[in-house]
């Protein structure tokens, strides 16, 4: 903390340092008079001792008071110690030369000491300034919030300038709300704080006025070094605020760019994905309505099955789009209830029977597994998406397996495996990104949202999902917690029993 010079209040009175220089010289004179040599011939030592008030005045009050002390010492030496006493007359040429030499030496010493003292004071002030600026910079460096920056700036200003009160205001700009922080020195809380601040420093950037720093303190004066430091504090605060605002603007720009890219990719993918089943449905219905062809029962059933399959495909696609929009908006909140994982898997398999009829589907999910606190429809969607992905990327007549088991009584581990091709290790994490496909992308249709939706749903339930290469194929793994804080097992059992 910067301490005020103990003479600052006294020096605030104009010319008081000159009075002190004369008083110090007078004090030394009173001390020297009892030791005045008899006959007035040996006053060399006294002339040397009279350099003490000159040096003291130069060190404490500066160059000009030191010169005044030198003149006062010259007069006192002549008046009290050189015969004839109590007069400024000098009868001997030798005494006159001694006085002239003493005056010159004392003035020279006073100037040298004063300059050294001034240089030392400036160096000390620079050191203090550097330390305080370093502390402020370190406090502001890692902050990414305007409120925290304003608080740090107010705190450092209060400490550095030993202020009674500090107020930092940052005005509203765009969507950024106004920030205002007021701090008071508890050690000076007994002092009355005047309504008008002692100093007001603007927070001015190249883009315009941002706010201001208001400072209350006693005495209401600042040295040039302190004025320079206060302006530097304001500049550092402006730089920190500009850095945060530019960072936020860059983040918003990246989000907008990502959003535009997402929308473009989504429209491109979905338009093709919607067009294919719609064309198939239209062709099947047109054929059924045709009066030129009489369809037998088997052909009619095949066409209706095509319509049903493509309708399910459309329904799945629309569901994925809705879920993805909820995940992107952060609005995916599972409606938890206690459910049997076996029931969820059986429901998903039933809905996917047409897509899995060309594969061998093996399900090993026991009905004795503990109940899981999950959203039934969302977890069913996870299984549907994983089964759909397995049918797309594995050859016909290959096996798709679903297994589940409890792990450490606090979570369930589920695996959906297929005999599809391996994925390179560097792509295993990225396959859960939107629109990311690494295998057979040229022959597999889809919007590339299924796995990304699975990740969002599983993580919303507090679980984890990952992929791995197996010896004979590929597998998706995910976990679901068996306990959720604030969701009791007893309530869940009552709901199931009802």
Describe what this molecule looks like in 3D.
The chain has 498 residues and is an alpha+beta fold. The protein has four domains: 8-128; 142-251, GAF domain (Beta-Lactamase), CATH 3.30.450.40; 266-325, Helix Hairpins (Orthogonal Bundle); 334-497, Heat Shock Protein 90 (2-Layer Sandwich), CATH 3.30.565.10. Helix content is 55%, strand content 14%. It has 14 helices and eleven strands. It has helices spanning 8-11, 16-32, 44-49, 51-61, 63-81, 93-141, 146-160, 224-289, 297-328, 341-351, 353-356, 376-393, 450-460, 489-497; strands spanning 165-170, 179-184, 199-205, 208-216, 337-339, 360-364, 372-374, 399-407, 411-418, 465-470, 473-481. It has a five-stranded mixed sheet. It has a four-stranded antiparallel sheet with strand order 2-1-4-3, covered by helices on one side. Helix 7 (146-160) runs antiparallel to helix 8 and helix 8 (224-289) packs antiparallel against helix 9.
Question: Briefly, what is this?
Answer:
The protein is α+β, with helices and mostly antiparallel strands. The protein has helices spanning 8-11, 16-32, 44-49, 51-61, 63-81, 93-141, 146-160, 224-289, 297-328, 341-351, 353-356, 376-393, 450-460, 489-497, and strands spanning 165-170, 179-184, 199-205, 208-216, 337-339, 360-364, 372-374, 399-407, 411-418, 465-470, 473-481.
Number of helical elements: 14
Mean pLDDT: 78
- Residues in β-strands, percent: 5-15%
Tell me which CATH architecture of the largest domain applies here: 2-Layer Sandwich
The radius of gyration computed from the alpha-carbon positions, rounded to a whole number of angstroms, is 44 Å
Outline: rod-shaped
Major sheet: 5 strands, mixed
- As for the number of domains, it is 4
Provide the CATH top-level class of the largest domain. Answer: Alpha Beta
């Amino acid at each position: 903390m910067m301490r005020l010079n103990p003479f600052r209040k006294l020096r605030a009175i104009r010319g008081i340092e000159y009075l002190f220089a004369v008083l110090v010289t007078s004090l030394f004179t009173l001390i020297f008079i009892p030791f005045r040599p008899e006959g007035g011939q040996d006053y060399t030592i006294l002339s040397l001792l009279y350099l003490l008030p000159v040096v003291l005045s130069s060190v404490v009050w500066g160059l000009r008071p030191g010169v005044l002390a030198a003149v006062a010492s010259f007069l006192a030496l002549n008046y009290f110690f050189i015969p004839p006493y109590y007069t400024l007359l000098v009868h001997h040429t030798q005494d006159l030369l001694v006085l002239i030499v003493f005056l010159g030496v004392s003035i020279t010493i006073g100037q040298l000491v004063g300059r050294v003292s001034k240089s030392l004071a400036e160096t000390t002030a620079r050191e203090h300034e550097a330390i305080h600026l370093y502390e402020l910079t370190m406090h502001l460096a890692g902050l990414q919030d305007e409120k925290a920056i304003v608080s740090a700036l107010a705190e450092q200003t209060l400490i550095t300038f030993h202020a009674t009160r500090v107020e930092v205001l940052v005005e509203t700009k765009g969507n950024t709300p106004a920030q205002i922080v007021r701090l008071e020195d508890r050690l000076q809380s007994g002092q009355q704080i005047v309504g008008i601040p002692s100093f007001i420093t603007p927070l001015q950037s190249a883009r315009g006025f941002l706010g201001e720093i208001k400072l209350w303190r006693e005495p209401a004066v600042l040295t040039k070094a302190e004025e320079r430091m206060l302006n530097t504090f304001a500049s550092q605060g402006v730089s920190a605020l500009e850095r945060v605002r530019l960072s936020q603007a860059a983040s918003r720009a990246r989000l907008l760019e990502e959003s535009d890219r997402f929308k473009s990719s989504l429209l491109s993918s979905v338009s093709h994905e919607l067009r294919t089943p719609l064309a198939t449905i239209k062709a099947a219905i047109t054929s059924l309505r045709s009066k030129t062809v009489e369809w037998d029962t088997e052909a009619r059933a095949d066409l209706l099955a095509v319509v049903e399959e493509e309708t399910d495909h459309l329904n799945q696609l629309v569901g994925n789009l809705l879920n993805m929009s909820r995940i992107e908006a952060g609005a995916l909140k599972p409606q938890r209830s206690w459910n049997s994982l076996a029931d969820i898997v059986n429901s998903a398999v039933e809905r996917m029977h047409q897509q899995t009829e060309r594969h061998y589907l093996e399900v090993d999910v026991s009905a004795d597994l503990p109940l899981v606190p999950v959203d039934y429809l969302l977890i069913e969607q996870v299984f549907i998406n994983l089964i759909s992905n397995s049918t797309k990327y594995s050859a016909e007549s290959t096996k798709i397996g679903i297994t589940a088991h409890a792990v450490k009584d606090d979570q369930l581990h589920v695996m959906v495996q297929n005999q599809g091709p391996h994925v390179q290790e560097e792509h295993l994490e990225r396959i859960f990104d939107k629109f990311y496909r690494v295998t057979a992308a040229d022959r597999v249709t889809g919007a590339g949202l299924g796995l990304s939706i699975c990740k969002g749903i599983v993580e919303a339930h507090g679980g984890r999902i990952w992929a791995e290469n197996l010896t004979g194929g590929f597998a998706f793994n995910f976990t679901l917690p068996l306990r959720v804080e604030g969701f009791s097992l007893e309530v869940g059992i009552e709901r199931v029993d009802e």
